[in-house]
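Entry 12.
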Amino acid sequence: MCLSTAYKTTDPDCILMEYVSRIDVDGDKITLTDVIGEQKVIEGKLVMVDLTGGIVKISC
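Predicted 3D structure (tokens):
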């Protein structure tokens, strides 16, 4: 199973969510869901997803 960590692009040390298993995008709203089903909704743009490295970068 591949899980990712979502980071803020303006502050790479700022982790938005760990163990992300699903990402849904609806306009400027990004819903991150972790492996246990907890969700976080963020307004911003999906900038980069590295599936092999488990990195997601979001501009928010």
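Annotation: The chain has a mean pLDDT of 95. The CA atoms of residues 33 and 39 lie 4 Å apart.
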